[in-house]
């Protein structure tokens, strides 16, 4: 399933902005020599194949051997919402790959890891996931310290310094979700709870995760340029209103002090909500507050529905599955990955629509061209919509290290070429509503999924996770989660009414796996860490998926799905 919305390259060789990307051996991570020259591999920006942005999920066979159609594709590929003009629901119907991507490069999906997983005991894996690789024993940021001490190792542009993101979140959240340093200062990061996208991002399929957002300094400061928590809180609510296109409840605030009529009642009084009312053609406008209000007037920052302002950052940690004192699945201290994104520049609706139109024409004229990947391992990869993505991942010892160019390239497809995206992002649009605990601004370690009702779909009013399961009974793209299928369907494949009724009231019933499954998934991923074989697939699969995945497809081969579904 082809991921587009990025200007295509003119040849079959991929280029980065730092130079030629050469095609290396497909298994260079697995050789001892490659391990010995990890710094050189990092700087070369090596690719083993030309389409790392097309994920393994897109090579699955939606039709099982008994003829049942399992449509997991619609969760990502769907009729989009403006200003994402992609509308890629047709991708559900065929493998719309460029020719170079017809051969499945995700070799880890075909390996049997039963023996390796069996060698790891439950106690060993629990001890491993409970050890933090983000903090030192003294509470310092281990990854930031590692980057400072190893600048030359990761200096791919040879300017004598590390030019990528330096971790600065302490994951120390207060009762409003704001992150603070050990000294009590605000870092600017604010965490939020959200509905995980159906499929691989559900913890039952291998990982817990969290996301924080940070707006640019002007959005945190008052008009005098000083940090102001009220200003920052209101600006975050304004962004939430714009992304969701709905009114957002806030704590009472003095509009006269801010100089903005937030609730649109025509007076500067006390407001307890940000009213969404943005239709420039009809003379309806919204405004930020504080220093960002000034910059908006000066056109240094911009405001539009479903678009984040310039300088917006996201921090996303992906973690193992731990067990709490009741043996319930919880988030681990150890991180599998730390992912970072920043909006570098603004693109208006016309420019975003033009991107799609150019992509469609390019795809039609030159169907075999793969995506141009812009960036470097050091600074991350930048997509045409204005965002830069960068990642860190476990090395063989379990410590976090910067991802290579190819490892980061896997971010590009999902964050630039899917109909479900909102300004290249998924989670913030799915943030829990303001009537939730702490208005949805909290970390999963402050409150778990338990008791959270199913999200309601906009198009038909159906519970979202229930709808997903009815169209993809195993709850994952690889049809490998037999635990979920057995929980929600009987042996004849008929839904269990009691299970679905429970899901509507408590999404943790679906999202969290059993203890035994959690431990097995942890062990399967640990094998991939030991191999450092991420470029061949990171899904914690134990048994090979030969019956579920194509090793090779024909370009535009039909998937077997005959009716498209909408994610919204």
From TrEMBL:
Highest taxon, organism lineage: Bacteria
Bilayer-spanning residue ranges: 12-30
Organism (species): Pseudoalteromonas phenolica
Swiss-Prot/TrEMBL keywords: Lipoprotein, Membrane, Transmembrane, Transmembrane helix
Protein name: Putative lipoprotein
């Amino acid at each position: 399933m082809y991921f587009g919305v990025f200007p295509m390259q003119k040849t079959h060789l991929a280029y980065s902005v730092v130079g030629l990307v050469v095609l290396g051996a497909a298994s260079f991570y697995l050789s001892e020599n490659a391990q010995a020259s990890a710094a050189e591999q990092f700087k070369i920006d090596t690719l083993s194949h030309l389409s790392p942005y097309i994920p393994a999920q897109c090579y699955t066979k939606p039709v099982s051997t008994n003829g049942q159609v399992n449509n997991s594709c619609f969760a990502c590929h769907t009729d989009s919402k403006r200003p994402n003009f992609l509308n890629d629901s047709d991708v559900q119907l065929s493998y719309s790959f460029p020719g170079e991507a017809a051969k499945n490069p995700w070799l880890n999906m075909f390996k049997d890891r039963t023996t390796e997983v069996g060698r790891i005991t439950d106690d060993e894996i629990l001890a491993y996931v409970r050890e933090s690789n983000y903090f030192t024993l003294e509470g310092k940021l281990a990854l930031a310290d590692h980057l400072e001490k190893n600048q030359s190792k990761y200096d791919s542009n040879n300017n004598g310094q590390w030019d990528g993101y330096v971790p600065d979140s302490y994951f120390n959240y207060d009762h409003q979700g704001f992150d603070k340093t050990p000294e009590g200062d605000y870092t600017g990061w604010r965490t939020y709870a959200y509905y995980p996208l159906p499929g691989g991002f559900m913890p039952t399929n291998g990982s817990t995760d969290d996301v924080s957002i940070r707006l640019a300094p002007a959005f945190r400061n008052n008009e005098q340029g000083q940090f102001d928590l009220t200003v920052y809180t209101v600006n975050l609510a304004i962004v939430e209103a714009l992304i969701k296109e709905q009114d957002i409840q806030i704590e009472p605030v003095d509009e006269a002090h801010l100089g903005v009529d937030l609730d649109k009642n025509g007076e500067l009084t006390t407001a307890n909500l940000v009213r969404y009312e943005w239709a420039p053609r009809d003379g309806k406008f919204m405004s930020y507050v504080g220093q960002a209000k000034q910059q908006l007037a000066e056109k240094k920052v911009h405001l539009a529905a479903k678009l984040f302002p310039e300088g917006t950052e996201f921090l996303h940690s992906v973690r193992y599955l731990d067990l709490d004192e009741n043996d319930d699945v919880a988030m681990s201290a150890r991180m599998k990955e730390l992912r970072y994104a920043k909006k570098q520049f603004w693109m208006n609706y016309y420019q975003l629509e033009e991107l799609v139109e150019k992509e469609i024409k390019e795809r039609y004229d030159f169907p075999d061209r793969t995506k141009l990947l812009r960036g470097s391992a050091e600074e991350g990869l930048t997509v045409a919509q204005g965002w830069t993505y960068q990642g860190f991942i476990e090395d063989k010892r379990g410590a976090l290290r910067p991802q290579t160019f190819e490892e980061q390239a896997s971010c590009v497809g999902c964050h630039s070429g899917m109909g479900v995206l909102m300004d290249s992002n998924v989670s913030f649009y799915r943030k829990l509503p303001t009537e939730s605990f702490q208005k949805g601004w909290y970390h999963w370690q402050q409150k778990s999924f338990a008791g959270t009702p199913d999200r309601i779909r906009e198009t038909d009013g159906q519970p979202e996770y229930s709808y997903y399961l009815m169209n993809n009974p195993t709850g994952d793209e690889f049809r490998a989660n037999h635990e979920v299928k057995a929980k929600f369907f009987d042996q004849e494949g008929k839904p269990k009414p009691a299970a679905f009724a429970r899901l509507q009231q408590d999404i943790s019933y679906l999202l969290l796996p059993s203890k035994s499954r959690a431990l097995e998934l942890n062990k399967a991923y640990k094998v991939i860490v030991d191999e450092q074989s991420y470029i061949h697939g990171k899904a914690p699969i134990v048994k090979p998926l030969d019956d579920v995945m194509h090793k090779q497809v024909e370009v535009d081969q039909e998937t077997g799905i005959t009716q498209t579904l909408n994610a919204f």
